[in-house]
Design goal:
Blueprint: H1 2-27, E1 28-30, E2 34-35, E3 45-64, E4 67-77, E5 83-91, H2 94-107, E6 114-122, E7 136-137, H3 142-149, E8 160-164, E9 182-183, E10 187-189, H4 191-221
Helix pairs in contact: 1-4
């Protein structure tokens, strides 16, 4: 009888635990993904930078509106000569990005500090580079890029890289489109669901406790 009662209490406790897990999942909710093209709270960073067109690279595997393409990125420096990697824009075809990179490296000159604005993004893990195309990278890794910018002399760098906004520096090319940055505002807590989670957890524990208490009372009577 009591073994059957134990199994029943464990089943009830499992149901309560499942309900508690469901409430726990509802307690922590994330906002829907947003982009910098919508009205959002994504902060816009403004700087004055001198561009370094000799160090221009391409990064593959950059999704935009569900389409995989390429970023053209470039080194830049502020007044203190601190390096800031900037992502100029997105191109769908590699050939177009390569042509633009060649034009920027040959035509554009580092002359003055220009006002730029964009969204500061974190560095990514480094990935191996193809020896046949050393300018084609598979991630935006600042550690890797700094070694390319200055292989012999250490240089200071900002903590992240800057994805330029649509109203920043224009690069006389229809190839590049403004980079679409996808992000989330953060995680929110539903305190009512969190309270229900604790309540169901208590109920699950009470189901087992009730069985134990009834068994103990039975032993005392014997």
């Amino acid at each position: 009888k009591w073994i059957g009662a134990l199994l029943l209490s464990l089943l009830v406790a499992a149901i309560f635990a499942g309900l508690g897990q469901w409430q726990l999942d509802r307690a922590f909710t994330k906002d829907e993904p947003k982009t910098n093209s919508s009205n959002s709270s994504l902060p816009l960073v403004e700087k004055r930078l001198m561009l370094d067109p000799k160090h221009t690279y391409i990064v593959d595997g950059r999704l935009q509106n569900g389409v995989s393409g390429f970023w053209v990125i470039m080194n830049a420096k502020d007044e203190k000569l601190t390096s800031t990697t900037i992502a100029l824009g997105w191109a769908e075809k590699l050939a177009a990005a390569e042509e633009l990179r060649a034009n920027l490296s040959q035509v554009m000159q580092a002359e003055a500090f220009l006002p730029v604005s964009g969204y500061l993004l974190p560095s990514e893990p480094p990935q191996p580079v193809d020896a046949n195309k050393p300018y084609l990278l598979h991630s935006v890794s600042l550690a890797q890029l700094l070694n390319l910018y200055s292989p012999d002399v250490p240089v200071a760098s900002t903590a992240g890289y800057l994805a330029l906004s649509a109203n920043s520096v224009q690069f006389s090319s229809d190839v590049l489109k403004p980079i679409q940055v996808t992000y989330r505002d953060g995680e929110k807590i539903n305190w009512l669901s969190a309270f229900y989670f604790l309540e169901w957890t208590l109920f699950a524990g009470f189901a087992v406790f009730l069985w134990w208490r009834l068994v103990k009372d039975e032993i005392i009577r014997l």
